[in-house]
Amino acid sequence: MSGFLIRLVIGAFALWVAEQLLDGIWIDGTLALFLAALLLGVVNAVVRPVFVLFTLPLTLLSLGLFLLVVNAVMLELVAALVPGMHIAGFGSAILGSIIISLVSWAASAWIGPSGKFEVLVVERRREP
């Protein structure tokens, strides 16, 4: 359960960073922020794989760049479902999805699959 909560906080932090950096995204309050983070996780786990499957030919033709559009559509979907989250336009959604992806990736690099903070320690031994 703690891994879920840590990932929820990471998602909320990523949304907050996107809101701070872009004028086209705004979220009204902490409750809407955490609700948007929770719903974005659910949408990315359930809806996004189906959407990616249906748009696979476009993704292949664009060499994967169409996934930016897919991520922006998922962010727009969350904004449409969460009262208190607003996105000004599709350009803001694309930039917001890039920022959210980068921040989530950087923050999740410290979290292992078990949901705990993990640090890799490498010990070098010299041969005699």
Describe this protein's structure:
The chain is mainly alpha-helical. It contains five helices and two strands. It has one domain. The protein has a two-stranded antiparallel ribbon with strand order 1-2. α1 packs across α5 and α2 packs across α4. The longest helix has 25 residues. 21% of the residues are buried. The model has no long low-confidence stretch (mean pLDDT 90).
SSE layout and pairings?
Layout: H1 2-21, E1 25-27, H2 30-54, H3 56-61, H4 66-81, E2 85-87, H5 90-108
Antiparallel strand pairs: 1-2
Helix pairs in contact: 1-2, 1-5, 2-4, 4-5
Order of helices and strands: HEHHHEH
Largest sheet, spatial ordering of strands: 1-2
Tally of strands:
2
**Mean pLDDT across residues:** 90
Radius of gyration: 17 Å
Work out the strand percent.
under 5%
From the N-terminal CA to the C-terminal CA, the straight-line distance is 47 Å
Major sheet details: 2 strands, antiparallel
Domain module count: 1
- Which residues form runs of ≥5 with pLDDT under 50? none
Oligomer: single chain
Tally of separate helices: 5
* Percent in helix: 55-70%
Q: What does the overall shape look like?
A: globular
